[in-house]
């Protein structure tokens, strides 16, 4: 993407456009050389098809020539008014146009969202109209990662269960949507080495109550206590302030197989949840948080 942000491409496209206009003008002028007097027949080019069908060197129809010149003039005017070689006389940009349309939409619909701004998020989860509005926002902006059913996918958390990396309270959900998150698990492969990584992975399997190699798990416990407790805690139950997952349950963001755990410990993980406050605004984020809260608090939301 960086290449396409270079000023080189502006000049490159401008040269092609201007070159095309000049070339078409010269071509059109060159084809207007042939003139026939009244009653005079055009020369035959020598091309024949199906025996008797011949090609004549007739001049271009006047109406056609005029339409072609009009398209050239239109192209020049368009290039002068809109961004082409320079900013254009009308100073139009797609970003400014987008901003105007967003402002118009906000002035028309913002009141619908502001209506619920003072309502507690837990109350939004119980209000069907507010929840429906939040759902429509979710289906517009969030399904690309979390899916239409909000159950997520590998690397994207399930929002319908009770397992939360940073906390599932209304305040924490609002904070996550508004400001985004950047979860990072450091890579330990170079530090531990292959065998220690396997040992720690088997200890993690033990914490989760999954089948494991007992000997490796015993060895891995020592390494875990020396290094991993800083984020995941002595019992492996994680730390929501740091976004460190609970390793003792059966909820896995990237998968809970031995191979996947080894991959996670070896290479680390980096996961980003974008911040939506600036794009959506406080009122829409508030409604969205209410809908997301309702997904994992179904009984309370009824």
The ordered H/E elements are: HEEHHHHHHEHHHHEHHH
Q: What percent strand?
A: 5-15%
Number of helices: 14
What is the approximate shape?
Answer: elongated
Spatial gap, N to C terminus: 47 Å
Layout of strands and helices, then pairs:
Elements: H1 7-30, E1 44-49, E2 53-56, H2 62-81, H3 94-114, H4 121-124, H5 128-141, H6 143-146, H7 170-179, E3 181-185, H8 189-192, H9 194-207, H10 214-232, H11 258-267, E4 269-273, H12 277-280, H13 282-296, H14 298-301
Antiparallel strand pairs: 1-2, 3-4
Structural description of this entry:
This protein is mainly alpha-helical. The protein has three domains: 71 residues, no CATH class; 88 residues, Cytochrome c-like domain (Cytochrome Bc1 Complex, Chain D, domain 2); 88 residues, Orthogonal Bundle (Cytochrome Bc1 Complex, Chain D, domain 2), CATH 1.10.760. The strands form two sheets. The protein has a two-stranded antiparallel ribbon. A two-stranded antiparallel sheet has the order 3-4. A hairpin with a 3-residue loop joins strand 1 and strand 2. The longest helix is centred in the first third of the chain and has 24 residues. It starts with 6 loop residues before the first helix and ends with a helix. The mean pLDDT is 90.
